[in-house]
Amino acid sequence: MVQLSTLVKVAGGTLVAGTCGMYFAHRVQQARVKAFPHYTEALKICKAHDKVTAALGEPIKLGDVDLKDYKRNYLGVAKSRLRVPMVGSRESGFLNIFALKAEGQPAVGYRVALLQLELTSEGDVITIYDTRQWTEEIDA
User: Fold this and answer.
1) Would the CA dihedral through 54, 47, 31, 68 be positive or negative?
2) Number of Cβ atoms within 10 Å of the Cβ of 129
3) Rounded to an integer, what is the distance from CA 51 to the centroid of its chain?
4) CATH number, span 37-140
């Protein structure tokens, strides 16, 4: 017969191992998202844009992309959309990244077509970058 203390130890160890595994998988997925070329391109554009720092305040910290939100965070065949949480000293919001693949050049990857900063408290949306190539309706 197995003692209760042994079962508790096994259950506790399984819980700890499972939790650590889920955390590690989450961190790996976030690292992959942050390595996307259009993600890094969008952040470079934001850092060079005065309206972003004026609205949020410095320093600006980035949050994790909600990968369960398939409506606002996806990588399609020709289009991609990411919603990145941002927090500054004055305000918080979301950086909405809209990216397209070059037609006929699938190996090139995504290029940023539209960047919008959505402020949380005021509900304002500031367009940071727009190539006028994103044709889909944008809903919150």
Assistant:
1) positive
2) 17
3) 20
4) 3.10.450.320
Residues 6+ apart with CB under 8 A from 100: 78, 79, 80, 110, 111, 113, 133, 134
pTM: 0.78
Distance CA 3, CA 65 (A): 44
* 8-state DSSP, 36: S
Domain ranges of the chain: 1-35, 37-140
Runs of H (alpha helix) within the chain: 4-34, 37-47, 50-56
* Nearest-angstrom CA–CA distance, 82 and 118: 13
Overall residue count recorded for the chain in this entry:
140
pLDDT digits (tens, 9 = 90+) for 10-29: 778 788 777 877 777 766 77
